[in-house]
Every structure is written in C-alpha cells, then in structure tokens.
Specification:
The complex is a heterotetramer of chains A (237), B (166), C (552) and D (177). Chain A is α+β, with helices and mostly antiparallel strands. Helices cover 24% and strands 16% of the residues of chain A. Chain A has 6 helices and 10 strands. The longest helix of chain A is centred in the middle third of the chain and has 17 residues. Chain C has 4 domains: 106 residues, 3-Layer(aba) Sandwich (Glutaredoxin), CATH 3.40.30; 204 residues, NADH-ubiquinone oxidoreductase 51kDa subunit (Rossmann fold), CATH 3.40.50.11540; 82 residues, Ubiquitin-like (UB roll), CATH 3.10.20.600; 90 residues, de novo design (two linked rop proteins) (Up-down Bundle). Chain C contains 23 helices and 13 strands. Chain C has a 5-stranded mixed β-sheet with strand order 10-9-13-11-12. In chain C, α12 links the parallel β6 and β7. Chain D contains 6 helices and 7 strands; from the N terminus they run βααβββαβααββα. In chain D, the strands form 2 sheets. Chain D has a 5-stranded parallel β-sheet. A two-stranded antiparallel ribbon of chain D has the order 4-6. Classes of the chains: A alpha+beta (237), B alpha+beta (166), C alpha/beta (552), D alpha/beta (177).
C-alpha cells in the first residue's frame, strides 16, 4: 500500500472516527466496535450488498445505503441505529424466516446460527408474515457434507468462496426470484459433482444450510475466520 | 500452461456445427454464453444437460454458472416443446382486455397448466410477458404467428384444429 | 462518406420519387405483418403494374394504429386506409386520381391533431431497410455535422442544452450522463443502447427499431464520438424477432456506407455496434443487470456506485441510453438544441412517445409534446373509452408506475408531475382502464409481474414481492382482514426503501397508488367480501367456511 | 389485591414448554403466592373459565379443535402469551405443511400400523390443511420464543407479568433456545 493514503474523518452514531479513503463504512464501524448486522458480507469475500441488513442512514439523504459497499467520505454523518432501521431490519429478518423452513429447534446450526443470533440482536420475537413452507430438498449425497435447502438464505457466501477462494466455482444460483436455489454443477447431487471436498462452503455458511454430517447431533460451530488470513498469505506469495 | 482443448461435438448432428459457429464467431469468449444458448435453442428447440455442458466446456464457463444462466432467463426452455405451441401474451394491455380468461379456457381445454405440454407431446401452452403488440390486445402466438384481438372460443378452435387426426 | 456524397444519395432518392404521382406506404410492422400486410403489398404492386399508374408501393414502418391493421398511407394526399385485405388492392389503385375509397378510409383528424412527431418523423414514411430513404429525409446529416463542425464537448453541450432526459423511465439528464462518461478515465469505452423494452404494455422501442432503425444507429455513433467510445452494443428482446432482423440488416447497410467501422465518414472515428439478444428477463432493463447480461451472466443488478458511466461493461466506462433517447439525438443536432428545448415544459423538454392501449378507442403509438394534459391524450387523441363505459384510471410507468384517477386527468405530462401524483413516466406505456377493471386486481397483476421478474438477489424484493402477492390475493379472494391490509402497507414501505435495485424499489408503486386513489375498492373486498367491478372471485369466505372444507 | 388468574393451555406441541414451566421448581412455589392457576393441562379443570388475566398457550394451531380452543381462550383472556416456538412460529408441527395432512395420516395410520390400518374419524379432531402459529388466528400480546423457553426465562417473564410489567423477552430467549 502506498504511503500517501488519504485519511477521512466522519461521524458514526455521533462518534468521530477516522478512516482510510478506501474503507467502507462497515469496516470503520466494526473497527470502532459499532455493531451493524450483516449476513451476506464476510471478510475475505467480495461484496454483493444483497441481504440489506447493513443499510444505514446518511444525514441529508432520504435514501438508505448498504454499509458493506458504502465508501467513507469526508464529513459524512452515518446513523447505524434508529427506530426506522430497526423496523426495516426486523422485517427483512421476518421475510427470511418466512421464506423457507427455518425450524431452529431441530436445526443442526441451532446455537451457532448467524440468522438466529441476528434475529435476537434485532429483538425479533415473532414473524408477522405468513410462513410460506415450501417443499425443498435435502442433499445428502456428499460423503462428508450435506445441503439442506430449507435453511438456505441465498447469501451466496458458498458461491463466492468456491469461485473466489477455492477457484472451483462448483456452486452457483439457479432459477430466479423466490424460486432461486444454490446448486452444484448442472444441478447435480453434491456428492457426484466436481466438488473438491475442501469444505470452505460449509465453514462460511451462516446457517444450517451447509453442514458437516459428522456434526449432526453435536454442536456445529462454523469457522470462517480463515478467510482474511488466507487472502493475506496469497498477497504475500 | 496447458492448452485448452475445445471438447468434440457431441454427435454427428449437423446442428452442433451451427452452435460451434456461433462460438467461433465470438472467439470462444465466455461472454458469448447467452448468444450460444440462443443458437442451441433455435437449432434444437430446447436446451438439455448435454448441450449446456458442451457449451459451458467449450467456452470455459463453470457448469453451475451456465446452468444458473439457463434457468435465470425465461426464454430458455429445458423441456422439448410440443409439435404445436400456443403462446398467450399476458402483458398489461392483454390483461386489461381479458387475456386471463383465454389462458384459463386453454388450460381447461388441454387439461394442462401453462408452461406444460400435453402428454402426447402435441401442444405446448405458454405465456409471455408482452410481445409488444399491445394495440391488438389480447394477443396470442399460434405456432409463432401473431393473432390479435383473440377470444377464448377462437383459440379453442385453433387448438382443436391441431388435435391429432385419427 | 462526406456531405456531397450524402446529398447525392438524397438527390437520387428524390429523383426516383419524382417519377411517381403517388406513394403508398404499407405498414410492415409486426402488428400489420401478422395481419398479412405483405400479401396486400404484393397485390398492390401487381395492381400498379397492370394499371400503369405512376405509383410507388413501399414497405414502411409502423403507422401507429396497429389495431386497425393492415394499414397504408397514401402520399402526398395523406389518406390513411385500414383493415386492408388483398382483395382491396384493385379498388385502392383504381381510386388514385379520384376520390379515396370511402369504405376503407380512416378519419383520424383528432388522432393526429396535437401529436408532434420527432422520434416517429420517419416511421411509416420510409422503407426501414433502405438506408437511402433515411438519408433522403435528412439522415446522417447530424452525424456529419458533429464530426466535421463540432468537437466532442460541443456535442455534449448541445445535448445538455436541449434538456433531453433519459426516455427509459428514470429521466436522468442525458447531457450530464454523456459528460460523465466522456470524463471517466479508462478505455475502451462502450455505448449501449437499451432496447430491452420489458415493460408489459409498451412497444415504442419496438416500433422505432422496426420502422426507423438508422435513426438509432446515428444517435449511437454521435454518442460514441461525444464520449470517446469504440464499441457499441444494442440489447434487444428476443421476443422482437422482426426488430432484431431489421436492425441487423441496418447495421450492415450502415457499415457499407461507412457510418460504422473504421474511419467513419472519412474521420479517425472508429466505432461498431453488435446486437445482443435478451432472453426474457424484465430486470435486464436495469442498467447494471443489462451489463451483466451482455457479459453472458445472470442478469442480476449490482449496487451502485460505481455507476456504469465510471465502471460498466467489463469494468470500463459505459454509456447506457434507451432507444428513444438515442432516436432524439440526431434531430437535436440537426435542428439545434433551442428547437428541442422549445418543446415541452420547464424541466421536461421535447416530445414523448406513448403506447396508448387498453380500454381506449384509438389504440396505438402517439408522440406528443411534453406538457400535454393527460385528458387530451386520452379523450382527444385516444378518442376516449369505447362501448359506453366510464373511464376509471390510466396506468403509466408499467410495473414501476401507478394508476391515476379521473381527478388527475388535467395533469400535464412531465417527469416530475407524474412522480408527484404517485406514478412515473416510465418508458411510455399508457394503459387506460374503465369501470370493468378492479384496481385491487390490477395491483395484484403488477405485483405478480414483479414477483416473477425479481432476480432473487436481495431479500426484500425476492420474498417481499411474494408476500405482497399473497396478501393481495387474500384481499382479492375476500379473505383478508384489516390487519392484512396494514401488513401490506408496511411491506410496501420496506420493499420500496430497502431493495437493491429499481425493480424492487418501485414494485410497491402500483399498490401504493391504487391504495391512494381507490382505497374504497380495497375496503369493499375486505369488509363486504365483494369485488365492485366483478372481476375478483370473492367467495365471501369466513374462517368458519375454511374449517368446513378441511378434510382428512 | 386479588391474585392474578393464570391459565396455561396446550394445543399442538410436545408439552415440553409445560415441562420447562415446571422446571422452575421451588421458584414456582415462590411465585404461586401471586396467582391462582385457573386452567391448565397440569391440573384437572374441565372448561376454560371466564375472566382470565394471563394465559400461556403452548403449541401451534393444527386441528379444528385447536381453532375453537384458541378463539375461546382469546375471548376469555386479558393477556395472551404465545409460549414456545410452536405457538410463536409453528415450529416442528408446521414441518408437515410442505407435505399436507394426508401424507402425515397415511404415514402414521397405514405405513406404520401393523393392525387395523384406518384413519380415525371419531374422537380425534380433524387436521387442518396447514399448521399455523397462534397469532395467525387471534391477536397475541406477548411472544415467548424458545424450544422450550428455559425455566429461568419463565421465571423472569412471570415475575414481570405478575407485577404488571411487560418483560424484555428479546434479552431472555430466542427462536430455538
């Protein structure tokens, strides 16, 4: 990195903070221990700005901005928590819970699920929207892992980690709209796909959609922390 | 670095050469995926596993990405079409002029839902989001020929005309 | 190609035309072709031959009133015929020099009075497949003028001064966009013409591409010169096969005449255009989704900034304008920015093409100066609502727009006025509804459209539109409560404010506008389980009735 | 001050919430001075009484019987608490929604039955097409997610409710807790 990086100062939730010009509001907020909920964002992967949970207000604009892709600007005044944002975040979480069959009580990720944790952090105690209860497959064909589409929130972390980090691009999204689904290869069973069995997708999956079969019935924490480190190692090489 | 080999044509079928021609014209560039899929569909009538795999591997596009593209665009079909196709426009102008009733009548007559083909493979019933002939609403494409100001009875009559003669 | 050569071509066409006393323009638009206008044209040509009359029969572009097709326009006597059959050819030719054929003639004084044709000036009057005919009507003069008399910044200044705003719906100032791309760092630069007219109920772009394709090419080349682009793409819906084939042929013609390729018009300008086919995805009208689609990927939008002007196709600076926007470029340079700015309102200049359809007497393409009251378009040009029915609403802006009631008919058409009333300009669909339409059902229709067209990338649009559709269906079926209505209104707010792209951000508009103007219809469905227009199958179901039908 | 009239009810659930409620153990005795238990599957009242202050409802609405019960409960209760994930979200009972009730009955009474394969038609109430959380039928005043909510959660919530305060549920429990 060149020595002459511009430094910007801005205000987040009333706190003066400084940032490098190439940083996002989310980066700076996290550096300063300001919690902004995210699901599709994961340090080490490209940003898609799709989960809309990190939307923040900027003073002077009626629009909301996703903090994960919002670059800092001099003098910017960011509000990360307000009644309005809380309501939007809760509703987005409700939409996620009602979209597929997230039965926390019998989910392999219960207690280690980012969706579940964020729902609690956003004070969500029930879902006003009718549950859609779609009939979705569970793919158990892989020797080590399994994919339960009932729990998938289409954050596409698996797609990105497989394409960007592992370089295999086995995962992608098929269909569109409410019928979208993550697939391996030509919608083949995971077990007979070109999967390299590296398991990165399982580690980055925020819910119980992708899991290690050996962890069924025991606690199944995910460890996506390897990503930034892995990227650093690559840059060094 | 290993030189990438374009996979051999899946069969002797001459249509594969047309498909290959499209890819060659675009220098086997990855961004020719959609153009090539159009060629496959216009040559074969639909896309199947083999054709998607052939195109994806020829253009060095990941299989899942190619499958994602095929299923994203509604113009692409992964089912072989019937001998005849009745496509009813469900754009706004057609909706206002009662296209829904025509669709319902056709579904009832053929005992299939839109997007399906009769079990004997004779007739496919489709809907389309606006063919841009809104002045003539409601509009249907009967085997590709545009018919304007359609009424249910008229469409049924045409469908009856397509019924196989024993 | 220089201006002398251009004049020679125009002169040759004029000389050719002087041989004739009459010219009959037979519409070869998709609408008329479907009604066999080609057979009529052949019959006409045969008849001319045998009659020995000095008459030229031309394959022309869209004449506007597709419902009355096949259509023909007789020049110079300005007689319009409709509903033509092969057998009518003899009579039409025989009448030349005498009285027009009464039984076929259409009397459309009101329809044309008040219209002002800029974009459509050639539509129906030239053979779209003959570049010479386009040139004979002033075609490519603007390009030559730009290349020989103006520098790129001068072109941008003219476009900016004209006040032209994007005709695809958003209304972004065109000059400003061009200026941004021109200043953007990076090469190559691209020019993209958005012909993905996905708005159901609109066919302006289709008619321009089929009826006057060279005009769009000229606009794109001028844009390329202005912003410094070397490569262009036009993205056309695969549902428009005729437009695709006409445009392909026109590209070849333009290349042959040196308007595309290297050294355009003898200058160092290098630019060429490639066609890319859409594949049935409304969301590809959104510029970042369209770019993804040209790159051969799923047409999912991405967050902006960066805007395509800075980082677009293959991360290079990219100018994206819609067909109608490009079609306005040549006339502006030809006639001057002041001429264009002289039409329209303070902030909406020029003309706008609308596809007038639905429950209206004269359905078809109309081009009117901005600022015209809706009432004039619907009741004067459009001839009002037929069959003794009562006007109820006019829908503009497609699935992103809204429905305006009677009391807003005196609104003057402009970008800002329409937004103020809860609708939007959109690409130009204008659908008239009468008392046989249920506004809740209309809202449900549009939400269903957005639901099936949602790309699925962001959750508010993906699941939000599906939930909105469910709630609207419940209302239509007469099964909803006031709580459901409140939930629907809340969802509209969330989807509008949190969706990633324009599709989701505007998807609630049809619901919000119908709620604003036709709330009583919603309440009628909820409180009394009945549909005032008799469209919805309200079966007055109560929770009790639901229990009774449960079986094991 | 008169004691709070408390009730608990059991729709389609596993009774785990009631078990967790009982897990309050000696704390239950401590709380019991403040309420009268006027109806509960834990005791032997036959009908749901009038003028109940607080009712904790366990379970989702999945039969015609549940629908009648929940409407009756709502009509006679001042503060209705959806207790546990089944009441709040539909949870495990709602997993049949993707398959439909027929598939469930076929599995239970035919495929897994060795003798007398038949669908029971009397005594057992009819299954609804879809299993729904309580708030889709009646308004709910407080949601207590968890499968089951822990005894500590129950204690904290009841302590607040009995003191006429609304508890801060989100800090105590979550879906699947």
């Amino acid at each position: 990195m060149s020595a002459s990086v511009d430094v910007k100062t801005l205000v987040i939730d009333g706190v003066d903070v400084s940032a490098r010009q190439d940083q996002t509001v989310l980066d700076v907020a996290r550096e300063n221990n300001i919690f902004i909920p995210t699901l599709c964002h994961l340090e080490g992967l490209s940003e898609v700005g799709a989960c809309r949970l990190c939307l923040v207000e900027i003073k002077g604009s009626p629009k909301l901005f996703p903090a994960c892709v919002l670059k800092v600007e001099e003098g910017m005044e960011v509000i990360t928590h307000s009644e309005r944002l809380l309501h939007y975040r809760q509703t987005i979480l409700e939409l996620l819970f009602a979209e597929r069959n997230h039965v926390c009580a019998v989910c392999v990720a219960n207690g280690n699920c980012e969706l579940q944790t964020i729902a609690q952090s956003q004070r969500l105690t029930h879902v006003r929207l009718p549950y859609r209860n779609p009939k979705l497959p569970v793919d158990l064909s892989h020797e080590r892992f399994a994919a339960d589409h009932n729990r998938c929130i289409l954050c596409t972390r698996c797609v990105r980690v497989c394409a960007e980090i592992e370089g295999a691009h086995v995962w992608d999204v098929m269909g569109r709209g409410i019928d979208s689904m993550v697939i391996t290869d030509l919608n083949d069973p995971w077990g007979s796909s070109s999967c390299t069995r590296c398991g990165k997708c399982v580690q980055v999956c925020p819910t119980g959609a992708l899991f290690d079969k050996s962890k069924v019935g025991v606690s199944h924490p995910k460890s996506p922390e390897f990503l930034p480190y892995l990227n650093l190692m690559r840059e060094e090489q | 670095m290993a030189v990438y080999q374009i996979p051999p044509l899946p069969s002797e079928d001459k249509r594969w050469r047309i498909v290959n021609g499209t890819m060659r014209r675009h220098g086997y560039s990855r961004n020719a995926l959609i153009e090539t899929l159009h060629t496959v569909q216009s040559s074969f009538g639909f896309l199947d596993r083999d054709s998607i795999q052939f195109v994806a591997q020829s253009l060095r596009v990941p299989l899942s990405q190619a499958y994602g593209v095929v299923t994203f665009y509604h113009f692409f079909s992964m089912k072989p079409p019937g001998r005849h196709t009745c496509t009813i426009c469900t754009g706004t102008a057609c909706y206002i002029k009662g296209a829904e009733k025509v669709v319902a009548a056709a579904e009832k007559h053929l005992h299939i839902k839109t997007g399906e083909t009769t079990p004997d493979g004779n007739i496919s019933l489709m809907t389309v989001r606006c063919v841009g002939a809104c002045s003539c609403a409601p509009v249907a494409l009967m085997d590709g020929d545009q018919v304007g100001q359609i009424q249910a009875a008229q469409v049924i009559k045409q469908l009856q005309g397509w019924a196989p003669h024993e | 190609m220089n201006s002398e050569e251009l004049q020679q071509i125009a002169e040759a066409v004029r000389l050719e035309h002087e041989k004739y006393d009459y010219e009959i323009n037979v519409c070869m638009g998709a609408g008329c072709l479907a009604q066999h206008s080609d057979k009529f044209k052949d019959a006409l040509a045969k008849e001319v031959e045998s009659s020995g009359k000095r008459c030229h029969v031309r394959s022309a572009g869209c004449l506007g009133l597709c419902a009355a097709g096949p259509l023909a326009l007789v020049d110079p006597i300005e007689v319009r015929y409709g509903h033509l059959r092969e057998s009518d050819a003899k009579e039409v030719i025989a009448s030349l020099g005498g009285k027009p054929v009464e039984r076929l003639e259409m009397h459309l004084e009101n329809y044309f009075q008040g219209q002002q044709h800029v974009v459509l000036e050639n539509c129906g009057r030239i053979d779209p497949e003959k570049i010479e005919e386009y040139i004979s009507r002033g075609g490519y003069e603007a390009l030559l003028k730009a290349l020989t008399e103006m520098d790129p910044q001068g072109v941008i200044d003219q476009i900016a001064k004209s006040g032209l705003r994007g005709r695809g719906g958003g209304g972004y100032p065109t000059g400003l966009k061009w200026g941004t791309v021109a200043k953007a760092v990076g090469s190559p630069k691209y020019v993209i013409c958005n012909g993905d007219e996905g708005d159901p109920g609109a066919f302006m772009d289709r008619s321009v591409l089929e009826g006057d394709p060279q005009r769009v090419i000229e606009g794109m080349v001028i844009a390329a010169y202005a912003v410094g682009a070397t490569k262009g793409y036009i993205y056309v819906r695969a549902e428009y096969p005729l437009a695709v084939s006409r445009f392909s042929a026109s590209l070849r013609e333009a290349r042959r005449h040196g308007f595309l390729g290297a050294n355009i018009c003898g200058t160092p300008l290098l630019f060429d255009i490639e066609i890319r086919l859409g594949a049935g995805a409304f969301v590809c009208g959104e510029e970042t989704a369209l770019i993804a689609s040209i790159e051969g990927k799923r047409g999912t939008p991405r967050t902006r900034p960066p805007y395509p002007a800075v980082s677009g196709l293959w991360n290079c600076p990219t100018l994206i304008n819609n067909v109608e926007t490009f079609a306005n470029v040549a006339p502006i340079l030809r006639n001057g920015a002041e001429w264009f700015a002289g039409m329209g309102t303070a902030h909406s200049k020029g003309t706008k093409v609308f596809a007038l359809t639905g429950k209206i007497t004269n359905t078809g393409l109309v081009e009117i100066p901005m600022g015209m009251p809706l009432r004039e378009i619907i009741f004067s040009i459009g001839g009002g609502v037929p069959d003794g029915h009562k006007f109820k609403a006019v829908q503009t802006g497609g699935p992103s727009g809204g429905c305006l009631p009677e009391e807003h008919l005196d609104l003057n058409i402009s970008y800002d006025a329409l937004i103020g009333a809860g609708s939007m300009m959109g690409s130009g669909g204008m659908i008239v509804m009468d008392d046989t339409s249920c506004m809740v059902n209309v809202a449900r229709f549009f939400v269903e459209f957005c639901m099936t067209e949602s790309c699925g990338k962001c959750i508010p649009c993906r699941a939000g539109t599906a939930q909105m559709f469910g709630l609207l269906s419940k209302i239509c079926n007469g099964e909803a409560s006031h709580q459901d209505l409140d939930l629907l209104i809340d969802l509209c707010d969330v989807v509008k404010n949190t969706s990633l792209c324009g599709l989701g951000q505007t998807a609630p508009n049809p619901v919000l506008s119908t709620l604003r103007y036709f709330r009583d219809e919603y309440l009628e469905h909820i409180d009394h389980h009945r549909c005032p227009a008799g469209v919805c199958a309200c079966n007055a179901r109560t929770p009790k009735a639901e229990l009774a039908e449960v079986t094991v | 001050m008169s004691k709070t009239r408390l009730a608990t009810a059991w729709l389609d659930g596993c009774s785990g919430c009631h078990m967790s409620f009982l897990d309050m153990d000696e704390r239950l005795i401590e709380l019991s001075g403040a309420f009268d238990l006027v109806y509960s599957p834990l005791v032997d009242f036959k009908t749901f009484p009038e003028a109940v202050d607080i009712t904790l409802v366990e379970g989702a609405v999945s039969t015609t019987d549940d629908v009648e019960k929940i409407h009756l409960i709502r009509a006679r209760t001042r503060l209705l608490v959806a207790m546990g994930d089944c009441a709040v979200t539909g949870n495990v009972p709602a997993m049949r929604n993707a398959f439909g009730p027929d598939a469930v009955l076929r599995r239970a009474y035919f495929e897994n039955a060795d003798l007398q394969q038949q669908t029971p038609l009397v005594v057992v109430p009819k299954l609804l097409d879809k299993v729904r959380p309580v708030h889709e039928y009646v308004s709910v005043d407080l949601y207590l997610p968890g499968c089951p909510p822990s005894a500590a959660t129950f204690h904290a919530v009841l302590t607040e409710l009995l003191a006429n305060r609304m508890p801060d549920v989100a800090s105590l429990t979550r879906f699947g807790a």
